[in-house]
From TrEMBL:
Protein name: LLM class F420-dependent oxidoreductase
Classification of source organism: Bacteria, Bacillati, Actinomycetota, Actinomycetes, Kitasatosporales
Top-rank taxon: Bacteria
UniProt KW keywords: Oxidoreductase
Domain Luciferase-like: 19-314
Gene Ontology molecular function: oxidoreductase activity, acting on paired donors, with incorporation or reduction of molecular oxygen
Species of origin: Streptomyces pluripotens
CDD domains: Tetrahydromethanopterin_reductase
Length: 336
């Protein structure tokens, strides 16, 4: 199992510790470093900044939001950074949810998310292969555009720039069983959310029969500390926000996933509290057991024991979420 460093997205401003952490991860032999985006910092610019100050570590987006860019624009970002970094890019994509797609990007959330994702990946693959002008007779991402409000003058194009790697890996963030099953068919890897080594069934049967060479790269907070309860507080804060606030009360993919993992009552309670403005209570309502399942927190010996569970399953790449340099080093030692 390889190790990655997950830096996420910026909060109020850029984190001055991200580049030193990425360089330390490279020194320790970590395979990859990953950035994200929500409705603030984008995923590609910080990754490019890190690329310029490292030499070997792979560069992943976990995830770049599909609604943020047309698939051709995303492919352009990926092939450009792949050239500049010497072939180090791992392109992780995610659809996000209606609240972000419609509230931030001003686009309709697709009524058929699986079809929209499939078309998006098709365009990206065609651009990166550069075998012919890109054409997709699609419902969501048609190329050329042939809608009633168009000019009819569009023609198929292929990129001027020759991609460095036509097979640049494409990974997808997917939560529901049908989405995960499609991911196994059309992508090179999967970025699971809230991966618990003892509950693979929450994602469907496909997890037990993934294709050869398929990447499975979940994030997990890694924190070496004496007090497990205290170490889990940032995990609970994150869960309280995503389960409670990243979606409508009746349409929240994260809450639905938590429910499938055996915490349905708790997920609905977190939503209820968060949406009522009682955010601190929502965080406290996150069960320690759930936060612990999806994390590696505690003394070195405890993390070593729990790490074996992660290695025993289908995970190929463990993406350590925002650890300190000491936790980075300990994890590298335990995984060697």
């Amino acid at each position: 199992m390889r190790l990655g460093l997950a830096l996420g997205y910026w909060g109020r401003g850029p984190d001055p510790g991200h580049v030193p952490l990425a360089r330390e991860a490279e020194r320790l032999g970590y395979h990859s470093v990953w950035t994200a985006e929500s409705w603030g910092s984008d995923a590609f610019t910080p990754l490019t900044w890190i690329a310029a100050q490292t030499s070997r570590i792979r560069l992943g987006t976990a995830v770049a939001q599909m609604a943020a860019r047309s698939p051709a624009a995303t492919a352009m970002h990926a092939l450009t950074l792949d050239h500049l970094s010497g072939g180090r890019v791992l392109l992780g994509l995610g659809l996000s949810g209606p609240q972000v797609v419609e509230g931030w990007y001003g686009r309709p959330f697709p009524k058929s998310p699986l079809t929209a994702t499939r078309e998006y990946v098709d365009v990206v693959r065609q651009v990166l292969r550069r075998q012919a002008p890109v054409e997709v007779d699609g419902r969501f991402h048609p190329l050329p555009y042939r809608g009633p409000d168009g000019t009819g003058l569009g023609r198929p194009l292929k990129p001027i720039t020759h991609p460095l790697r036509p097979g640049l890996p494409v990974l997808l963030g997917a939560e529901g069983p049908r989405n995960v099953a499609q991911t196994a068919r059309i992508a090179d890897g999967w970025l699971p959310l809230y991966w618990a080594p003892s509950r693979p069934e929450a994602y469907g049967e496909v997890v037990r029969k993934l294709p050869e060479g398929f990447l499975v790269a979940p994030m997990a907070r890694v924190k070496v500390c004496d007090d497990v309860t205290e170490g889990l507080l940032p995990v609970k804060a994150m869960l309280g926000f995503y389960i409670g606030g990243m979606g409508h009360a009746a349409h929240n993919f994260h809450a639905d996933l938590m429910a499938r993992m055996g915490y349905e009552e708790e997920a609905r309670r977190i939503q209820e509290l968060f949406l009522a403005g009682r955010r601190a209570e929502a965080v406290l309502a996150v069960p320690d057991a759930f936060a612990d399942e999806i994390s590696l927190v505690g003394p070195r010996e405890r993390i070593a024991e729990r790490l074996e569970l992660w290695r025993a399953g289908p995970v190929t790449d463990l993406l350590a979420l925002a650890p300190d340099p000491h936790s980075l080093r300990v994890l590298a030692e335990l995984n060697s």
